[in-house]
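Anyone up for a design puzzle?
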């Protein structure tokens, strides 16, 4: 583990809080931000990067006017105009709020505002194509809310430009709701580090009631973020329930289902944000395999001086104990893979502002004659945190060795232990069979097998190696082979 040096000397002053905010003074900052998002899309010729002209057409603004807006030569644009640009690029709520701030420190989208909330839901819809501004306006229009007021001048007939024609809807929305259901909210049914903060524990379901006054029927539409589309008709007919695999199959209900999908995804994102802040949990502890070593990490919030907005992250890997201090929770960045974190939370440049690899490194700083009494208080607090969290980490390591805690609890996850062979893709090598009369129970036919790694080497793995690797969080047979070759055993990652 690389030793991280302190980034600055300890100040003489005692700061209860010390926040630094990035200020954009460059006229190109907003344009550069939008340019980065344009790169994510293909243009009309199928090449990467939608042009400024094409984006202007999506928003409904003339190319020259749009160019001036981007470089802030027309800085008096409405908040709706910037929101429309963000919507056209399918930015999520976080990206849109960043754009609003960059443009003119405009207020962020507010979930408590009915109009803003509908816009957020559209942005959270997970679109694979550029979003039509008319689609956004249709959603607003359905609930009697003002359409996006995109540009500040009027056309020849005195109407606002970029506002599409009024759209008629076949059904009246009576009510709608979105709820989160889970059977695992209060406990981890798998008793495993890997599942303790899993996104799979939450399921957000959105429901809408529609009135068909022509046919005198009520339709109940239901959808989850990753489920199919379900329709119930009342009064009940011969076939009151229908399900659709794709949204294109839903016919007249497609726009309503799209809204529900956005609602469910928006709620899923909101719930997942709770997971991304240890302040909601007081403290959290977990472990995983990282770079073929056991990585145990723990995070807690500085409730002793909450005004400092500090998180303590304590890690153990390769014999090094490190305490890091940050202004943002880093737990989920350690808990998830880089790809998983990016998928759920986007790009995040947050990093610790202080790190200590030994207790002596902290103690040496407060003995510095240049340090003030107030600074020493902060350092002594961190030294105390270091000691206490090290005790918890060492306890966790011992529990892992004694099989008292697990990254994955084999006994809870699988009824048939040999199922780990299929998990690691080596069922054939271990000659596994399924006993259908026993409910497809998997049984290994041999106790050991020769595994050919990606680089062509042959390593012998015991079935017991698979059991233990699963418990410790190994992710592949290749990973097991490398550890057995370099360290002699699976258990060696704990030494």
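Challenge accepted. My sequence:
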């Amino acid at each position: 583990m690389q030793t991280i040096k302190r980034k600055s000397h300890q100040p003489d002053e005692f700061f209860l809080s010390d926040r630094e905010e990035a200020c954009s003074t460059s006229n190109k900052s907003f344009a550069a931000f939008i340019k980065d998002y344009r790169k994510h899309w293909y243009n009309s010729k199928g090449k990467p990067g939608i042009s400024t002209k094409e984006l202007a057409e999506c928003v409904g603004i003339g190319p020259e006017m749009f160019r001036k807006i981007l470089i802030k030569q027309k800085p008096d644009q409405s908040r709706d105009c910037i929101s429309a640009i963000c919507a056209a690029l399918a930015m999520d709520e976080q990206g849109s709020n960043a754009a609003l701030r960059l443009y003119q420190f405009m207020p962020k989208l507010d979930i408590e505002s009915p109009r803003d909330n509908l816009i957020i839901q559209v942005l959270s819809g997970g679109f694979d194509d550029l979003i039509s501004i008319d689609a956004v306006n249709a959603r607003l229009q359905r609930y009697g809310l003002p359409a996006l007021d995109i540009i500040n001048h009027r056309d020849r007939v005195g109407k606002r430009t970029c506002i599409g024609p009024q759209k008629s809807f076949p059904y009246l929305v009576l009510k709608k709701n979105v709820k989160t259901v889970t059977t695992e909210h209060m406990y981890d049914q798998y008793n495993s580090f890997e599942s303790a903060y899993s996104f799979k524990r939450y399921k957000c379901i959105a429901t809408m009631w529609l009135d068909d006054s022509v046919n005198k029927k009520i339709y109940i539409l239901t959808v989850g973020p990753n489920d199919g589309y379900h329709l119930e008709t009342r009064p009940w007919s011969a076939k009151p329930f229908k399900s659709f695999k794709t949204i294109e199959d839903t016919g007249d209900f497609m726009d309503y289902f799209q809204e529900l999908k956005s609602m469910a995804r928006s709620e899923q994102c909101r719930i997942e944000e709770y997971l991304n802040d240890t302040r909601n949990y007081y403290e959290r502890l977990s472990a995983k395999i990282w770079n073929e070593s056991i990585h145990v990490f723990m995070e807690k919030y500085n409730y002793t001086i909450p005004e400092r907005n500090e998180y303590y992250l304590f890690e153990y890997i390769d014999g090094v104990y490190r305490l890091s201090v940050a202004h943002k929770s880093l737990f989920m960045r350690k808990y998830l893979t880089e790809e998983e974190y990016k998928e759920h939370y986007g790009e995040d440049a947050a990093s610790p502002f202080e790190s200590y690899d030994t207790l002596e490194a902290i103690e040496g700083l407060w003995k510095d004659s240049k340090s003030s009494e107030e600074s020493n208080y902060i350092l002594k607090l961190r030294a105390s945190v270091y000691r206490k969290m090290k005790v918890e980490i060492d306890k966790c390591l011992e529990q892992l060795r004694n099989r008292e805690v697990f990254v994955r609890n084999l006994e809870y996850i699988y009824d048939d232990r040999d199922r780990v062979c299929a998990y690691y893709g080596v069922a054939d090598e271990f000659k596994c069979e399924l006993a259908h009369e026993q409910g497809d129970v998997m049984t290994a036919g041999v106790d050991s097998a020769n595994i050919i790694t990606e680089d062509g080497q042959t390593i012998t793995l015991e079935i017991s190696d698979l059991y233990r690797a699963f418990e410790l969080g190994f992710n592949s047979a290749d990973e097991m082979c490398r550890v057995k070759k370099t360290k002699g055993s699976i258990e060696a990652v704990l030494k």
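A detail worth pointing out: Residues 1-27, 153-165 have pLDDT under 50 and may be disordered.
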